[in-house]
Amino acid sequence: MIRRVLRLTSGRIAIGILGFIAFLAVFGPILAPQDPLEGTTDILANPSSAHLLGTDYLGRDVLSRLLDGSRVSVLGAVQVALIALVVGVVPGILSVYFGRAFEWVTLRLADTLVALPFLVFAVAVTALLGNGIPQAMFVVGIMVSPLFYRVARAATLSVARSQYVEAAIVAGASVGWVVRKHVWVKVLPPIAVALANTTGVGFVIVSSLTFLGIGVQPPAPTWGGVLASELGYLSFQPWAPLAPTALIMATVWACNLLADAIRDVTGQAGRALLNTRKVADGSAVTA
Amino acid sequence: MRQKALAVLAAAVLGLSACAGDGGAGAAGESTLRWAVTLPAHWDPVVSGSGAQFRILSLAYASLTEIDEHGKAVPNLAQSWDYNDKGDQVTFHLRPGLRFSDGEPLNAAAVKAYLERAKTQENSALDGDLTSIESVTAQGDLDVVIQLTQVDHQIPLLLGERVAQITSPKAAQDPAKLDQSPVGAGPFVVTELVPGSHVYLRKNPDYWDAANIHIDRVELQTAPDAATVVSGLKTGVYDFANLTASQVKAAEAAGLDVVFQPGFNASNISINVNKAPFTNPKVVDAVRYATNRQEFVDKVTFGYGKATDQPFPPEYLAYDQRSANRYPYDPEKARSLLAEAGYAPGQLKLDLVIAGQTYATASEIVQSQLNAVGFDITIKVDPNWEKPFFAKDLALSLYGTTGRESPVQTLTAHFGPNGPLNLSTPYQPEGFEKAVSLARGTPLDSPDYAKNLQAATRAGLESRALVFTYSQPNIFVKSRKVSAITPIPGQIHWTGLKVEP
């Protein structure tokens, strides 16, 4: 699937941006030119060779703070997506096979979670369990999981009622075997789309919470936190919020672009599009 | 037919307008002050307690005395006062014909009821300030006789805007209701109060100095984010607002008037000497020598404040020059003191617990300064900070004071055994009680007053519980429609203030 995504321009752009962000998450703290926590007397300084993105209200290098804060933002977003994936997909598939009671309970649970405002809930949880990104993102992941539940359930339902699956069950195949052999292949593409989308949502949530000062203790830098502090000093540095904003926007956009690209290459229309391009390139013929 | 329908519609609109509350728009030609401010959580001055809320409550309540530009007690509800020869009894003489906004008379009995409520009500924030008052007697309608537990010449200052905003005794029978529906005898009367949203007030025609109140209406609106206050004034949404130091340049560039109101403010690092590691005086000294006050002035007050090592700004009467710069910034000494106390660099892990945004920048500065000398400080933001702070459960925190009219009250609040700003109660420095007693007993016009007051400050500064950092003026921004504000330290006096309609 990755190869097919890379054949699309949008897919290449998305993976390029997300690869860069992942690189920042891993190596950002090492690449930071200065100590992101150490203040200087040069407060709210304009960009210069010493401080490429200027300094903040305590004289700290903004570029170093953004690089150092990448890891928290990326890990938080990935945590949301992975927790939602695990919590949503398994009951989504099982709800088709585990009888009416299980189906009814999981559907009502999913409806309940969808009805709750997850940002407010995350704030409440940090007030209860302590101010930290992991606990906030754990809750958000569970609250976003109905998306995966519904996607997995819909895909499973479409497979479970097909004749070849019914034939396999009549021939004595177990539910586990059917899920492994037939259902999982069908469920995977929409889940990949949902995963890319949810990672983007995760970035928005992490940035929103840290913008509000929730999830991290000062002076730890985050993209949202840097943006919030820059907004307080607009009269000194009207351009300052641009860098953290651009980082957040580009990452979320790349996640959505990747989701679109996956959808395009795994859906009927996407396949047709790819095949048409292959014909034009002369690299393949239409099936 | 169409005209008839329009007439019915107009009548209905007029009728609905009449039924509605105070909708927020003053009548044409009325003088209205629109103030963007953090709305008080409490409107009962007995409960309101600390903070700058008394400044807002002064719209609805008048106090027994007030202060002038020099911080001297001057008449307000009380037109005069006199002490007995010994100095342990003071009689306040009220103005005749005073009335609360609910029609009740504001007489000696009402003042007595207020002071007794402030001393005894369970959730009173003022009881600790009234320890000098033994009993209150109403002598006739106009004389309030206060018997003191000790000779105390600070009482006229004490019973000013912060402690003695007199409430209607009838309304105070239900303190919970009073807390959200103020009934006082101030220059304005609350006509609509929506917690967290807005408060509308109208001029009180029964205010004793109503002739000098030139504003018809005040609208308090919840203050927006600091960065948008200036644009709110520039676009005419507000006429007046509190301003953070970071926004001063923007306000000046927008052509607004920035007012630096003098004040008695001082911020501090609060230490609990009853809790380890601060039970060791060397650790406290390490904090003292690690503190670079100028950094607070530069980064928190943007240069508009002053470094101070006492609970008031350096120009204040009670500021003791002999104690100035007793613990100068010396990170090397701080490091060696910490080593002498037995802590290797990074070994001493401590939580610095703060309330929230108010002290966010200051907390980061404290953290970096203490970590630089070998502490390992973690900042903890606790939205319910008041509870552990006033229960004295924290080891290290930050706080500040907007100051008090009475300098002795400021000293006892910080250094006294029951002081609300003393995180280490019941600890008090040796000799403080005696020095304070001498300052209390000195008449305010005595040539020894300043000397005795400063001696009390000096004794208080022996306390290991507080490291003072900086003082900054109260900064306001106003549109040109609002006339000049009299520079009363820490307060806003509404008399004489004008707003163009």
From TrEMBL, chain A:
Ranges of residues in domain ABC transmembrane type-1: 70-259
Family, similarity comment: Belongs to the binding-protein-dependent transport system permease family.
Cellular compartments annotated: Cell membrane
Organism: Phytohabitans maris
Positions of transmembrane segments: 12-32, 74-97, 109-129, 135-152, 191-216, 236-259
Pfam family, one: BPD_transp_1
Membrane topology label: Multi-pass membrane protein
Name of the protein: ABC transporter permease
Major location category of this protein: membrane
Gene3D superfamilies linked: MetI-like (1.10.3720.10)
Keywords tagged on the record: Cell membrane, Membrane, Transmembrane, Transmembrane helix, Transport
Lineage: Bacteria, Bacillati, Actinomycetota, Actinomycetes, Micromonosporales
Cell membrane in keyword set: yes
Listed InterPro entries: BP-dependent_transpt_permease (IPR050366), MetI-like (IPR000515), MetI-like_sf (IPR035906)
UniProtKB/TrEMBL annotation, chain B:
Domain Solute-binding protein family: 73-415
Alphabetical list of SUPFAM superfamilies matching this protein: Periplasmic binding protein-like II
Alphabetized Pfam families for the sequence: SBP_bac_5
Entry keywords, A to Z: Signal
CDD domains the UniProt entry points to: PBP2_NikA_DppA_OppA_like_9
Superkingdom classification of source: Bacteria
InterPro entries with a match to the protein in the record: Peptide/Ni-bd, SBP_5, SBP_5_dom
Signal sequence segment: 1-20
Name of the protein in question: ABC transporter substrate-binding protein
Record organism: Phytohabitans maris
